[in-house]
Structure formats: structure tokens, C-alpha cells
Amino acid sequence: MSRRKRGGVEGSAAERPSTIRDVAAKAGVSVATVSRTLAGNYPVSEETRTRVMAAVASLHYVVNVHAKALSGRVAGPVALVIKDITGPSLAHVAAGVEQEAADRGRLSLVCATHDDPAREDDLVQLMREQHAAAVLLVGGAVPGEAYDRRMAGYAEALDAAGSRLVLVGRPSPAPDLPLTVVDYDNRGGAFQAVSHLLAHGHRRVLFLGGEAGMSSAEERRAGYRDALRAHGVDHHGDLDTIGTYTRTSGYARTRDALRDGPEFTAVFAASDMVALGALAALREAGRDVPGDVSVVGFDDVPFATDLTPALTTVRVPYAELGRTAVRLALSSGEAPTGEDHVVLGTQLIIRQSVRRLTW
Fold first, then answer.
1. Per-residue pLDDT reduced to its tens digit, 90-132
2. CA nearest 225: which of 257, 270, 261?
């Protein structure tokens, strides 16, 4: 077998990488001195540091990060656990997480659960074993005893490992748990959207809501009903529909309402993807927006401004959600009281998809 010398230490290049002992031998110092130099937690002379770093470079030595994590000398990564990575809203949360983590010198990891609770369990445990500094669970959930038990288990297990659980856009379980909640005002945003339609004379607003029981969907539904009550408008069950936050669902529900009733002059879609489907169904039926039917969405994803007409919608600060989650997670031990549960505001963005009715 061919062999070569590397820094005065024999070994096959294919068999093993350089070790800390190789670095010490090449630099002419002890292993302890190399360790202290690389850790930066013990004073060494500039001449010694120069020799050690030259040996590291020439041998292409890679620090054993896992060993450093076990010793607490390396900053752990920030793990983002989401349902999927294809949705534009979640992509903006991920961007915010990555930006804030990078600003703080942390690596960020993105993991997808594909809406499988068992996979979520596995990913949280894996991130705990990998010594993640924080684990961020993003997206709505169905609250209840089972949910509370799972979140409490996650929070306590991560806390015991020196990590932090952060729930982003998820309901908060029982109080006094070692976790952080970063949410946004779903209910207030929906109230703004529907109030805008009602203030423009619309009295029959088709609500294309989310799935029954899902936290964000129920909050947006509550905001829809709050606005009706505030404006003295009756709630009609046949105008209050449930479904998924998808273009297909928005299209099907709008098509069915146009074909079979009920009558409506406006649509409030609980996500911009749902609004996109509604616009397609209205266009297919020959209905002008906003001439015949007004439409408001929720999220303010990038394509909202590119639609014809540009979509009036509720802006959710998704990137800021990600940034805030990382900031609070990494400063959890020093955060002021009350900063373990933060709710960010939402904002109605008025464009061209709503017209005022005149009677």
C-alpha cells in the first residue's frame, strides 16, 4: 500500500484525516496547547498561535465540532422545523431565521415534517442530540390536551439539554413551561380585512376559511365574525366555509358558491393562495374583480402585487417572526419578563381588488 508522510506523521491519506496530535507534532507544541489555541479560551503567545494555525492550514485539520458541542465550547445551530418548505409564507419565516442566526454567528438548519407528528417527534429528538441551541416549531396546530402534552415534553427535554423550544405561529400550551412563543395577530388581521369590505358597502362576504380546529384558521374565523358583529351584519353559515389553504380549495369553494349559491358581493380568503384560486374561479365565470366581486386575501406573499388587479391583503411579518424567534431563543436566559410570549401585529395593505358598492 502506498503511504506518504504528512507533517512528519506517517499515514494513508485515504485512511484517516489529520488529528490534533498531527497538528501538535507539526507545530512543535503539546496537544493541550493546540486545544487552547483553537478554543481561544486560554492565553498563548502570538508566535505559538501563528505556528499552530499554520499547521492547521497545511494539514487541512478540521475541528471535531461534535466534541466541542459536548464540552459546551461551540455555539449550537438553530433548527427550524416546519410542515413543508414550499409555501411562500414559511419560506419567509425561514429567511428571517437564517438572517438572524447568521448575524449571531449561528448555523441554521431547516427540517420538514410533512405534517407527520411522528416525524416531528423524531426531528425534535434529533436536534436535541445534535445540541441545537434552539428548536423552532413553525405553523398552526390543533390545540388540546394531546398537543399540550407533546409541547410540554419537547420543552422539558430541550431545556434539560440546554436548548430552547420556540413555538412560532403556534398556540401556547400550559403556562410555566421553559419555552418561548412568537405569534402574530391572526384575529386582528382578519377583523381589519372584513371591516374594510363592510365599510365599502358589502354585506354578503364569502369567507374562504382554513381547516376546522387549526389554531390560525380559527383565529381568522373569529376575526371575520367579530367584524360582522361590530358592523351590525348578520352571520350566515352558508357564507362561512372551511377548507385547506390551497389554490385548489379556493377555486373549488368559489366555483361552487357561484354555481349553487349563496349570493355574495365580496370574498375574504384566509390566505393569498386561497385568494388566487378564488380569482381563477371568478375569472372563469366571467365575473370582474373588483367590478362584480371584491376580493381580500391574507399573508401578502410576493405575487399579491403582480395579480390583476393587485390584491388587497393582510400583511404578516413572516421574516420578522423568524428573526424575533431566534433573538428571543438565544437570549432566553437574559430576556426581560414577558418576552417569552410575543405577538407581532398585522397590517391591511390596500390595493385594487376592492370597490365601494353604491346603492
1. 889 999 999 999 998 888 999 999 889 999 999 999 998 888 9
2. 270
DSSP 114-141: TT-HHHHHHHHHHHHHTT-SEEEEES--
CB atoms within 10 A of CB 343: 12
Strands 347-349 and 108-112: unpaired
Dihedral angle sign, alpha carbons of residues 279, 282, 286, 291: negative
Coil vs helix vs strand at 49: helix
Q: Write down the H helix ranges in the chain.
A: 20-27, 31-39, 46-59, 65-70, 88-103, 117-129, 145-160, 186-199, 215-230, 247-260, 272-284, 318-330
Tell me the C-alpha distance between 267 and 306, whole Å: 19
Q: Are 180 and 325 in contact (CB under 8 A)?
A: yes
Q: In this structure, what DSSP letter does residue 211 have? A: -
Asked if 79 and 164 count as a contact pair (C-beta separation under 8 A), the reply is no
CB half-sphere exposure, 82, CA atoms < 13 A: 22
Neighbours of 292 (CB within 10 A): 12
Total-model pTM? 0.79
